[in-house]
Amino acid sequence: LPDDIWLQIFSYFSVKERASLARVCREWNILCRDSRFWGAVDFRSCHVSGEITDKIVESVVAYSCKIRIIDFSSKRCHAVTDTSLTHVANHCPGLQRLNLTGKSLITNRGLGAIARSCGDLEQLFLSGCSRVSDRGVRTLASKCPKLEKLSLSNCLRLTDKSLSAISRKCSSLKTLDLSGCVKITDRGIKALSRYSEHLTDINLKDTTGISIEGIELLARGAPQL
């Protein structure tokens, strides 16, 4: 059969099933690594029994270097650690969108690995990653200048230092979620307002350290809000 027919057939199989098919022969291995199957990896719909572990992540991302989108937001990914992010960094240099919502085991080490290897990252969701601190965000900002959408909601360790780094390094940023970041103050908002000409959407819910004056300052510095 022509390759296009085989690819159509393989499209009906799950990630786990294609991983098994790839071991049948060399030709199938090549076909199962085709970029149309690996442009996006969503662990919410990954047909693997039980929880998603670092070992499973390693086996999945190793199949293709063309993965552009990875979603770890499923509750089944609660055991994902920095080790998984190191695997992603090693195998997915062209990553553009990464969702780590609710992954409380992720630290600055894993975030740093992603930042240093995935410079084309455009969208990153870190909501609830409570172990991430200013150090991790500073590394991210310095290595990923193409960021357009960033969620830091309920990252409770973040301070104005994170906003200062983001404002200076991420000039393409359009959407920023800071909801629940209780250590952010007017000082950070002031820094953000200086370099926020592209910002169109910001969430400041439950940021108790920001005053009306700070919001007004941001509004003047971000005309597209």
TrEMBL record:
Report whether Transferase shows up as a keyword of the record. no
UniProtKB keywords: Ubl conjugation pathway
Q: Which Gene3D superfamilies match?
A: Ribonuclease Inhibitor
Record-annotated F-box domain positions: 1-41
Cited InterPro entries: F-box-like_dom_sf (IPR036047), F-box_dom (IPR001810), FBXL15_LRR (IPR057207), Leu-rich_rpt_Cys-con_subtyp (IPR006553), LRR_dom_sf (IPR032675)
Q: Which Pfam families match?
A: DUF7885, F-box-like
Q: Does the UniProt entry include the keyword tRNA-binding?
A: no
Q: What is this protein called?
A: F-box domain-containing protein
